[in-house]
């Protein structure tokens, strides 16, 4: 796959990035280099490789899904600078 200057111009417009005309050839070259690397990665045989979520083997810490007491509005809003009817009161931001 090859990226030309028209494609770079189109990508820049979609990304809403201002690109000068004199920058187009360099960006096209950089994008082509990136796509070449991606193409090389596609050639690697990963058929017998297990998917992993981390480079370090670890197990997730799990806790029991136990229902606890709820309805703690008073305790949660006790230290708030302002609270009313169980909700935080904040200064008006939009006028």
Task: Write the topology of this structure.
Blueprint: H1 5-14, H2 24-42, H3 73-76, E1 83-84, E2 87-88
Antiparallel strand pairs: 1-2
Helix pairs in contact: 1-2
Give a description of the structure.
The protein has 95 residues and is mainly alpha-helical. It has a domain at 5-41. Helix content is 35%, strand content 4%. The longest helix has 19 residues, at 24-42. The mean pLDDT is 90.
| Main pleated-sheet profile | 2 strands, antiparallel
Low-confidence stretches: none
Approximately how much helix is present in the residues? Answer: 25-40%
Shape: flat
**Rg, Å, rounded:** 27 Å
Discrete helix count: 3
* Mean pLDDT rating: 90
Strand content: under 5%
| Cα distance spanning the termini | 51 Å
Structural class: mainly alpha
Key phrases:
single chain; 95 residues; two-stranded antiparallel ribbon; 3 helices; 2 strands; flat
Q: How would you concisely characterize the structure shown here?
A:
The longest helix is centred in the middle third of the chain and has 19 residues, at 24-42. Helices cover 35% and strands 4% of the residues. With 95 residues, it is mainly alpha-helical.
